[in-house]
Structure formats: structure tokens, C-alpha cells
Amino acid sequence: MVLETQKALLKSDGTRLDDRLPTYVRPAFLKTGAVKVAAGSAYAEFGSTKVIVSVYGPRESKKAQAFSDIGRLNCDVKFTSFATPLRGKAGQDIGDKEFSVLLHKALEGAVDLHSFPKTTVDVFALVLQSDGGDLPAIITCASMALADAGIVMRDIVAAISLSCVGKNLLLDPTYKEETQEDGSVMVAIMTSRREITQVTLTGEWSSTKASEALELCSDACQKLGESVFLVPKVCIEEIGNFAIFQLPRPPLRN
Amino acid sequence: MAVEEASGSASVVKDVASSMEVEAFRRLFPLQYIERYLDSAVRPDGRPLGRARPTDVVLGQVPTTDGSALVRLGNTTMLAGVKLELCVPSAETPDQGRIAIDFQMPPICSPHVRPGRPAEDACAINEQLSIVLASSQLLDLRQLSITSGKSAWVAYLDIYCLNADGSLLDAALLASAAALMDLQIPTVSINNDGKVQIVSSREKQDQPMVDAEEGQETKSKFVEGRSLKLGPVPVALTCMLHKKHLLADPTAEEEAVLQTVLVVVLDSPDKLISLYKPGGQVVATTSTVMDCIALTRLRLKEVHSILEEATQTHEED
Amino acid sequence: MVVGLSAAEKVYIAGGIAADIRGDGRGRHQFREFNIDTSVIPQANGSARICLGGTDVIASVKAELSVPPPGRPNHGKLEISVECSPTAAPEFEGRGGEELSMDLSRALQRSFLGGTSGAGAAIDLAALSIVEGKLCWALYIDGLVLSSDGNLLDALSIAMKAALSNCGLPKVEIIGGTSPEEEPDYELSGNPEEFTRLETSLVPVIVTLTKVGKHYIVDATAEEESQMTAAVSVAVNKKGSVCGLTKRGGTGLDTSVLLDMISVAKRHSAVLRRALAFAGLFSSPNVEKRPVSFCLLLFRRLDANGCRTK
Q1: What angle do CA A97, A98, A103 make, to 5 degrees?
Q2: What predicted TM-score, i.e. pTM, was given to this entire model?
Q3: By the CB < 8 Å criterion, does B106 face chain A?
Q4: Which of A78, A191, C8, C147 has the lowest CB atom count within 10 Å?
Q5: Are residues B60 and B35 in the same domain?
Q6: How confident is the model at residue B178 (pLDDT cuts 50, 70, 90)?
Q7: Do C252 and A195 touch (CB under 8 A)?
Q8: C-alpha distances in Å from residue B310, one per residue of A17, B68, B178
């Protein structure tokens, strides 16, 4: 059965169904300023995974919340009902809630909460289309939106996921690859400081494989972060609206 | 109350205004800021009073749907998607399919929407959209029927507001119509028991297609996929009445401070689908209403040509 | 978690950890003594309660007959959820415990359920299948936090492992309906002596390393957790494979630190597992109906022999 799935996801020449090598990420498209009415916003596309994140605030905290010296970061993730091939499947509340929590955890280490005391910064995400790697796309996009809103951050956060299918490690998996995975890793990294803000791992991994996967992810995040860093600058200087970044391809590992 | 106070001390405002930066004036006295523009017959974004913002329509943006459209009306952005599912038609209307409309304002679209509870505006617009689509002849639900009394399509039309900057109904209606224009009904096969199955495009290539008439010989018959034949597209125009001024297609900033809103929906120059005026301070006279309708007539022509262009561009791609 | 720690208390906690002698006399890499009771809930198929210092949790396993999950006809089902009792801590009242419950549930699911293909799950899912494509066991593992004094996740994972080892599945006799078209016809054995045990050797245990200042500690108390900058929970099974990884706390961690934490967690998990196996001797099937208590007083010695990290 293992052989069967491997055959289905990898072609005879070792490339994936979308012609990528296992350690390649999908072409990414990143742009800030997607939602004009927001304080800051960004749009990200990783293959056919498409997300919009907008940032509001700093603004008054909800009245019900207790007093807090430092600022709050409030995250919320929603899916459109047509994000997945089956209508409304991704819109289940539990999944959304978990994504919101994980997004918060990935960002809170990078945002300087002391810079907006007593107030709240809202980070809202909408997944327009879901095709694997949704959460890392949201995290990367959200950190760009925060930068666009001028929120003080220690660093840009970039995130990437990886699926383990049989013996293969597939970087930046599609939905199809995710449904057949034996294990997965998601890593969010502050790219200049090289610090992991959020990491999750599922499935059974030997130590060597786990460290290989973590290194593969952090390398990819690093490269993604370098590209992301350019985007806000482009917008500040107002050189055109669009900036397309094809990620540099990491060398193939054996 | 703030508005009253401000207008009460109009002379103070004028004095302050002359010494204040534009951006500060705009934030502190939003009404006076806009009124100043209106008095010189121009809008803060440079438009004449009666003109709508530039409008873009792009079809077929979301491959996971059966039909989709992205509409931009100035900064207001709407993404509409239609998904088809099989259903059994109700007993009262055996030869009709169904359409389910859902308009959503996710928290990303506006600073006023917070997660947890749906925005008030969203409910109102959802209701208006449903009424307009039901009363216009845009979509004849009989086209969604497959076999009378046994199977039909239910079309889930979901409209997401990505950026709320005024005149939401106009944009939402345009997005809905465009998504329906883009809608492709998939090919289905009907076997002898009347069981309907969707035939994917790959299977279609494998199996030689059979016409419905010839299909009698084979086990199951095919109903070829098609796009819908739509009636005239209804077009909405939100008009704002303020003192003696009449503004078309207001932005969120204008909507927030001006007095009365009036929405006109037409589907051809002489056919009124809906007229909506929810209270407000200015009592609209008949002639003002006629002016609004006249503006909508102009807009109707404009929108129809935009839609035509969008369809052509889409076909070329 | 803990409200109102004075500045002096904070310094005391951090200073103690830096000096490798914590408030209760433990070193940085020592667990608290713990106590496991099994078969604490008679209605459940398996249950266990663990008291780890002031932390008190119960795990129960309920087995039900069910239909295999779509797309995987030869697998059974495994579901995990955690609830925090409002009496456990003042902040769990009302909706306060919800987020923590979800965090704990997700971390345990991540560690116990394996990948989406079902590979690497704590219990071999294929072993839960009864009739392919038609009938299987569904195991519902529930955790309940009765009292909270830090390190809930490790305690829950130990309780769940013990509850799974304690779990007995009644014998199912297939009478007919094995052909693909028919509905399966089965009979559930009423004899309490007739049951099968689960193979639980691959169920992982979770070790959480909490970083306070420059050092990291195992088995943090609530007071120590309140001073943490980051915590990493690593699930490790018998083979030494990492089965799940969850990070808490906002501060970033260097990749090398993370890898180091994983290897330290692995060493600790070996000791924990040995202690659990020891406890397991007393809950063999023959003495099934008698609640078993086993106080791991020897645990510190085990720690000294098996896992002195420094």
C-alpha cells in the first residue's frame, strides 16, 4: 500500500505531480496592500493556495477584556465556503479556531506587544482557496500584513510545511499530498534571527529524519523570508503594485 | 451629537479649517470636509457627483467553483463563487432547481466587522440580494432542472466582501450576476433508474459522447454540459441624498456621514426591479427619485458593456 | 497561570533553576514523584489516574463498535479529547478552560494519531479493524484535568498510555455477513473474562521541556510555568522515534536548541517508560478488577541511574 501511494505522488523520474522536485516549494506570489480600508494587508499565493490577511489597529480593546499593560494580538482565520473542492468542508469551526490559535502563537513572539500598550491589534485572515499548506501561507502573509500596517516587529516570520510520504520528504505539500502523508512538520521562523516561533510535528519520525525535516523547513523559510523582506520595501517606495517572487530553488538532497 | 455640535459652531470650524492640515480636518470634521467638496460639485476622490467609480469584472478566478467572479468597484471588492450540487426538486416545483444565496462580510473587509457575530449590513444586503435575484428574470430556475421531479441542481452562490468601501449592494449584485454568467453546468449521465452522476472531463474524453436521443440505446444517457442562458442583468445603483446634492455610488466615508440612501435596481432602461429607501433624514421628492432612476439608467448601460467586455476577455484566455 | 508572584518570588524561581536546585529540592532534570491508579472508572473499558505532585488527571478509554473511516476500510478509529474541570484552577471557570482544553487535545492528537494516512499512530489502527470496510472498534480516549499544578500534557499522556494498557476489548464473534454485500452480523461476548488487550508498546509518552531563563527544566510546576519563555513538548515512543512536537510560548528558539531539546526529551522518555512498565506489572489481566496503586518512590533513583543529564 505504501508503494502505491508513493507511485501516485511521485513520478518515475522522482518529480512530483506538479513537476516539482521533492525539495522545491511552489511558486509564490506575495503582495501588500490588498485591502485598502485596513491599516495593513497582504495577499499571498502559494501554488493554488490563496489567502488574504488584513490588520486593523492598534485600536481599543474589547470592553469585556481585562486590563492589560501590554498590547494584545487578536487573530482570526476564516475559510470561504468554496475554498475546498467539497463545499463548506474547510469552514468547520473547530479547524478555524485551531488555525487562529496557531497563527497567534506563530506571531506573538515576533510582534513587540509593548509598543502598543492597552490596545489590540487584530489580524484577520480569509482563505480564498485551500490547496495544502494553508497555515504556513497564512502566517507568512500575516507577518507581511503586520509590517504593512507599521506594527513594530522584531522580525518577519516566514513559515513552511513539509509532508513525509513513505521515505520521501515533500516540501510545501499540496492538498493531495497532505491527505496521503504519514507525518507532517510545520515550522515558522523569524528569518533574520533564525529563531523558531512555532513548530508542530505529527506522525512517527526517527531523530535523524526529524532533524533533516526541520533543517529543510528552516532553510526554505530562510529563502522565503528573504523574498518577503523585499515586499514591504517595494510598497513603501511605491514601485508598482505587483511584485512576483519565484523562490530560489534549494539544491536537491539525496 | 458630534455632528450637531460641529455644525452649530460653523464659523469656528471655518476658522479652524483655514489653519488646519487637510488630513486632520478630514478626521475631525468629516461632514464639513465632504460638504466643502460637494459645494464645488466634486467628490473627495475627484469624481463628479453622479458618476460611479471605475469598475472591473474578472470571471473564472476560483477553480474550485463551477463559476466565479471578482468585482472591483473602486476599492470595494467582491468575490462570488457558485457551486453546484445535485438535489431532489421540491414537490411544488418539480421542474425547477434551487439557488441558495449567502452574502458574507468576513472580518478582513472592514474595521467595523469583528469576528464572532455577523455584521448587520451583511444580513440586510443578503436579504436585498435574494429579493432582487428572485424578482428579476436573470435566472430562470427551470434551467437548473435535470429530470422533472427527480433531480435538479442546487446552486450555492456565496459572495464574500473582501474590501468594504461603500455601495456594497451594487458590487455584490454585479458579482453575483457575473458568477452566474461564468457558471458551467457539468455534463451528467442519467442511467435507466434515473440516477444522475456527474461526468468528469476526463471520463468525457474516454467515452465517446452520445446525444440525448441516441443515448436511449446505451445504458445511460448523457446531458451535455452548458452555460446558463441568462435574462437581462439587473444593475443596482446606490444613491446618496444630502441637502440639495445627489451622489451616485458613495464610498464608505461618504456613507458614514451623509443623510439618506436610496437604492435603485433596473434590469432594462424602462424596467424597475427594486427601489429601496430605508428612512433617513431627507424626504425624497418624486423628482429626486426620478433623478436617481435616470442616473441608474446611465449606469445600467455602463455595467452591461463592462460585463460584455469581461466575458470576451474571459473567452479569449 | 499563577497570579501575583512577587518580584522576589520570581527571582527565587529563576535563580533556583539557574543553580540547578528548584523550589522543591529537585534538580532541573528531575520529575516529581507520581502515583498511578488503574481501573478507576468501572464503566470505561480502561482508565487510569495519575497524581504528579499537585497535578491530578484521569484518562479513560471507551470502546464502541463503529464503521471504518471513509477511504481506509481496514482501519479503526481513535479519538482524543481533554476537558479541564472548573474546579482544577480558578481560571478554568466559565469559558476559561476551553482554550487550554483545545490546546491540550490538539497536542495529544498530534502525538497519538499519526499522519493523515494513519501511519505512526499510537495504536496500530489496523488492529482495531474487525470486518474490513464494515466493522471496527472506535476508541474514545478522554482526559479530565482534576487539579492543575503544571505539566498537564505529560501527565495526560502518561495517564492515557496507562489507560490504554489497562483497556480490554470484549470479544466480538462474527456470525455471518462477511461477504461484501451483506451487513455484518455479530455477537458481543458477555463474559467479562473474555477480552483482548491492546498492543500499547508503541504508545508515546510526552516530555515537556520548559525554558526559564537560559536553562530548561522537566516537569515544571505551575509557578515555574508562569516564568517560562518557551516550552517544547516532545512525544517519544519505544523505538525512540519522535511522534509529535508542540511548542508553547511566544519566544523564538534556535534550531540547534530545538534539536538539543528533542534529544534530551528522548532520554527522559526512556526513564518514564521504564517506570510505567514497572507499574504495568501490577496491572496484569489477572488482577484486572482490583484497582492498582503503585507509588513510584523509586523514581528518583531510576532517574539517577538512567538519566543524569549532567
Answers
A1: 100
A2: 0.85
A3: yes
A4: C8
A5: no
A6: very high
A7: yes
A8: 32, 12, 9
- Is A82 within 8 Å of B64 when comparing Cβ atoms? yes
**Cβ-contact A182, C117 below 8 angstroms:** yes
What whole-number distance in Å separates Cα of residue C217 and Cα of residue C206? 14
Read off the C-alpha cell for A213: 525535516
Question: What is the extent of the structural domain holding B22?
Answer: 1-40
State the ipTM, two decimals: 0.81
**Are residues B83 and B212 located together in one domain of the fold?**
yes
The verdict on residue B162 lying in a domain is: yes
Q: Is residue B213 part of a domain?
A: yes
Phi, psi for residue A213 in degrees, rounded to 5:
-65, -45
Q: Which of C249, C268, C225, C267 is nearest to C31 (CA)?
A: C268
| Residue B199, number of CB atoms within 10 A of its CB | 19
Size of interface A-C (CB pairs under 8 A): 117
CB atoms A37 and B165 under 8 Å: yes
Domain of residue A188, residue span: 20-241
Does B62 sit within 8 Å of A129, measured CB to CB?
A: yes
pLDDT(C245) > 60? yes
CATH at residue A86: 3.30.230.70
Distance CA B41, CA B116 (A): 41
10-residue mean pLDDT profile of chain A (254 residues): values are 55 81 84 86 89 90 76 90 73 67 90 88 92 92 91 89 89 88 91 89 90 90 79 40 34 40
**Cα distances (Å, whole numbers) of residue A143 to A148, A157, A241, C181, C250:** 9, 6, 18, 54, 15
Rounded-to-integer distance, Cα A104 and Cα A111, Å: 10
Contact yes or no, A with C (3+ CB pairs under 8 Å): yes
Q: Do chains B and C touch (3 or more CB pairs under 8 A)?
A: no
Chain B nearest-CA distance from A52, in A, is 8
